Amino acid sequence: MNRFSVIYLRKKRYYQLYCATHAEANTVLKQLLTKKGKVPIGIYDAKTELFYWESSRQRQYDQASIEEQGKLDNQITTMAQTLRHYDTSGQDQPNSVAQLLQANPT
C-alpha cells in the first residue's frame, strides 16, 4: 500500500508521488528540491491524515497564527485527499488549485 503522498507543484498544478514508507517519501521530497520546475510542498500520510511540510514551508507554517495554521491544514489535507481520489478513480484532476480545493470527491 502506498500510504504516503509526496505533494509538489509544477506549472501551477499540484501533483503527487506515492511512497510506501515515510523514509522513502522524505527521500523523494529531498530529490524534488533539485528538480527544475518542481516545487516540493510536503508529505501526506493517508492513514493518519497528517501532513508534513517541506522544511522551508514548515518554518512559514510555524510562524503563522493558530487560525492560519488551521486553514492551511484543512486546505492541504483536502487537496491531498482529492488528488488521491482522482488518481484511484481514473478521473482527470481539476486544472487549477482553486478547482482542486473545491472538488468534492465521492
Q: What labels describe this entry?
A:
alpha+beta, 4-stranded antiparallel beta sheet, 24% strand, single chain, 106 residues
Structure description:
The chain is built from four helices and four strands, in the order E-E-H-E-E-H-H-H. It is of the alpha+beta class and 106 residues long. It has one domain (4-97). A four-stranded antiparallel sheet has the order 2-1-3-4, with helices on both faces. Strand 1 (4-10) and strand 2 (13-19) form a beta hairpin. Mean pLDDT is 86; it is low at 95-101.
Order of helices and strands: EEHEEHHH
Helical segment count: 4
What would you call the structural class? alpha+beta
CA gyration radius, whole angstroms = 13 Å
Number of strands: 4
Helix proportion: 40-55%
Beta-strand percentage? Answer: 15-25%
Strand order of the largest sheet: 2-1-3-4
| Total domain modules | 1
Distance between the termini: 20 Å
Biggest sheet record: 4 strands, antiparallel
Low-confidence stretches: 95-101
Tell me the overall shape: globular
Output mean pLDDT: 86
Provide a short characterization of the protein structure:
The protein has 106 residues and is of the alpha+beta class.
Helices and strands in order, then pairings?
Layout: E1 4-10, E2 13-19, H1 22-32, E3 39-45, E4 50-53, H2 55-63, H3 66-89, H4 97-102
Antiparallel strand pairs: 1-2, 1-3, 3-4
